[in-house]
Amino acid sequence: MASAFLKNPTKISHFLIQRQFNNRYTFNDSIKVHSFLCNKMQSKPYFRLPNYMRKPREHETSSIFSSSFSSSSSSSSSATAAATSISKFGFVGWYLRMIKAWPILTKSFTSAFIYTAADLSSQTIVRQTSEPVDFVRTLRMAGYGMVILGPSLHFWFNFVSKLLPGRDLFSTLKKMVMGQTIYGPAITVIFFSFNARMQGETSTEIVSRLKRDLLPTLLSGIMYWPICDFIIFRFVPVQLQPLMSNSFSYLWTIYLTYMANLEKAEIASC
């Protein structure tokens, strides 16, 4: 056999190459067989632990947390969307749309409604059981809210928000001072004068009424309105400030309509 190999050197080289290849293939193949057997053993049902018993891998844990976070964030976003839809289709959403479409008219009707309810409440508290409701007086109060108070609140709050756009504490205090020193006294004088004129009082009688009722009314307002103004200017958007002011005005107007419908003041003789 050795002589045959010596006679044919090509066959010798082919034999050596094939032997080297077989040895290399056997080593690589043994590695593949070992890994294949390990995978097959781990894939057996009796070898794998149940999902709730085995320790989750890192990528599985991260996927679980990410899925739970996404579900919680989606639930919170759905809750926010639900709240937005409620405000969009509820009374607040309707009122905001009305303010955007007809701002002065909406605020005027709001003031008229508040003054109507406040005057009826004031008459219920003051009048005797046998006395009828004075609907002329109620109509007079509603007209004041419709014609004077509603438009004045619209322009006043817009003016103040442009002059002092901030909502910090210092800006809020300045708005409160402006309300108590400018708008409050002016609108109170207009209220008493309008109501007295609608009752047929003369200019002299109106002046006498103002001398008698204006200062006590302003002093009572100082005890009530600064707190209301702080809440309005600090926390309420400008488009809703007239509505909030009218809401606070309900209790105040019960007192104000009572003061405005007192008997005529005596004219001081010269």
Automatic annotation (TrEMBL):
GO terms for cellular component: cytoplasm; membrane. Coiled coil: none annotated. Pfam families: Mpv17_PMP22. It is found in: Membrane. Keywords: Membrane, Transmembrane, Transmembrane helix. The chain crosses the membrane at residues 141-157, 177-194, 214-236. Its main location: membrane. The keyword Membrane applies. It is a multi-pass membrane protein. Belongs to the peroxisomal membrane protein PXMP2/4 family. This is PXMP2/4 family protein 4. The lineage of its organism: Eukaryota, Viridiplantae, Streptophyta, Embryophyta, Tracheophyta.
